[in-house]
Each structure stands twice: as C-alpha cells, then as structure tokens.
Design a protein that fits this description.
There is one protein chain. Helix content is 67%, strand content 0%. It is mostly helical and 126 residues long. The protein folds into two domains: 9-87; 90-126, no CATH class. It is elongated. It starts with 10 loop residues before the first helix and ends in a 5-residue tail after the last helix. The relative contact order is 0.15.
C-alpha cells in the first residue's frame, strides 16, 4: 500500500468496480462449488467400462481445467477487492503511477499500468 498517495480514483468511480467485482466473485464461487459437486459425482460414479472411463476422464479433465481457471480468476478478483479496500486499486504495483481507467474497465484486476505490463511481458521487470 502506498502511504503517500490515496487511490487515484474517486469513490464514485470505485463503487461500480467494487460492485462488479463482488458480482464476479459471487458467480465464480458458485461455479467453483458446482464444479466440485460435479467432480465428486463423477468420481463416485466411475464404472469399469474402459470406453466410459476414458470419456469420464476427459470430462473430469475439462472440469478440473475449468475449476482451476475459476479458482485463479477468483483469486484475481479477491485481490482487486482487497486493493480497493486498501486504496491501492488503480495504482501500478511496479511504478506506483496510475493505471488508466480504460485498462481497469477492461481488466479490473490489473496490477500494472500498460507500460509496466508490456515491459513485464517482455521480461524486463521481475
């Protein structure tokens, strides 16, 4: 958290982000819960048939991939909500400059401004 500067975004700008992120959080938690139930149901219903087993494995792999993707996204959303609560939302984690509003609207869990993100992707920032 940057103690020297408050969030560069006004409360009336932060509120929609907070609301949208909370909605995403709720939807992701529901999806994760459903996936856990489906994975358990598949594990409980495993049959001895090799063909059924292979299609079951493919289904399980797809569910695990979706589950993992949703868990990762949930973590990003939760970290963005945390940054809102600590007034770090909209501040680049690298240069501590503002993250552009358009970038935040497209990727509300972004932790880097576009310039620092591009440098990171090119391997210049560790």
């Amino acid at each position: 958290m940057s103690l020297t500067s408050p969030s560069p975004l006004a409360d009336n700008v932060l509120l929609p982000f907070k609301s949208d992120l909370r909605e995403q959080q709720r939807e992701l938690m529901l999806s994760i819960e459903r996936a856990q139930k489906e994975i358990r149901a598949l594990a409980d219903s495993e049959s001895g048939d090799v063909v059924d087993g292979s299609s079951g494995n493919a289904s399980k792999e797809a569910m695990f991939a979706s589950y993992s993707k949703n868990r990762t996204q949930l973590r990003r959303v939760e970290l963005a909500l945390q940054r809102i609560s600590t007034a770090d939302f909209g501040i680049c984690a690298v240069c501590e400059g503002p993250i552009g509003l358009k970038r935040l609207q497209a990727v509300p869990w972004a932790t880097n401004c576009i310039a620092c993100q591009e440098q990171s992707e090119q391997g210049r920032i560790h």
